[in-house]
Amino acid sequence: MAMRAAILRHIRVPVLQTLAPASTASHWQRWIRPMSSHGDDHLQKEEVIERVLSVVKSFPKVDPSQVTPDVHFQKDLGLDSLDNVEIVMALEEEFKLEIPDKEADKIDSCDLAIEYIYNHPMAG
Amino acid sequence: MASTPSKSQILSLFRSLLRTARDFSDYNIREYTKRRTIDGFRHNRHVSDPSSIAAAYSDAESQLQIARRQVIVYSLYVPKLKSVMEIKHA
């Protein structure tokens, strides 16, 4: 799936360019932006922390008052491994990422989630 | 039937089902599949007998195949109107 999405994203640029030459510049900018390696559009750490915390807080079984940036999902919030998977999936949706199973299994605390997302180049 | 699936295999299957659920274009089907997956895994949470675990696992696997096929079928008949639940209020 991730592979397919990545390929489609690349293909779309030339197609748009040939079909709509008049608006080429704006399309180019729109599609190139998310792929740029410049630091200016990368997420700020504070923003990542805030959004991760709000996703975790909005999880039905979590008591929002207990959520802090270094809270452990299963040890501190009383969640189980299924909830853990659900939270990581919710984070994927929030940041428009696809986290591979191997990485997703390791994310078991807010701390690790923030670290992973902050260091992810495609997080948006 | 294969041996008892490990915890990580089960979580991986759970994740695959949730990912597939996300691909449905129709809001109602998408939410139902997600809800059904979570409820199903929760329902079998305390199953400890190895053969029952293996049976539940292969059942979920076949459900995953069905869901994957249905994603494709539903994508051919996308509703023209969005569900009212998908409309974001400003």
Query: Percent range for helical residues of chain B?
Result: 55-70%
Number of domains of chain A: 2
**Helical segment count of chain A:** 7
Q: How large, in whole angstroms, is the Cα Rg of chain A?
A: 18 Å
SSE order of chain B, as H and E?
HHH
Helix content of chain A: 55-70%
The CATH level-2 architecture of the largest domain in chain A is identified as Orthogonal Bundle
User: Which regions of chain A have little confidence, pLDDT < 50, spanning 5+ residues?
Assistant: 18-23
**What is the number of strand segments of chain A?**
0
Distance between the termini of chain A: 18 Å
The proportion of residues in beta strands of chain A is: under 5%
Q: How many discrete structural domains of chain B?
A: 1
Residue-averaged pLDDT of chain A: 79
Shape field of chain A: globular
Average pLDDT figure of chain B: 91
Domain Complex 1 LYR protein (chain B): 9-65
Protein name (chain B): Complex 1 LYR protein domain-containing protein
Pfam families (chain B): Complex1_LYR
Family (chain A): Belongs to the acyl carrier protein (ACP) family.
Summarize the structure in words.
The complex is a heterodimer of chains A (124) and B (90). Chain A is mainly alpha-helical. Chain A contains 7 helices and no strands. The longest helix of chain A has 18 residues. The two termini of chain A are 18 Å apart. About 5% of the residues of chain A have low confidence. With 90 residues, chain B is mostly helical. The interface between A and B is medium-sized, with 11 and 13 residues. Chain A: One of its GO terms (molecular function) is acyl carrier activity. Chain A: This is Acyl carrier protein. Chain A: InterPro entries: ACP (IPR003231), ACP-like_sf (IPR036736), PP-bd_ACP (IPR009081).
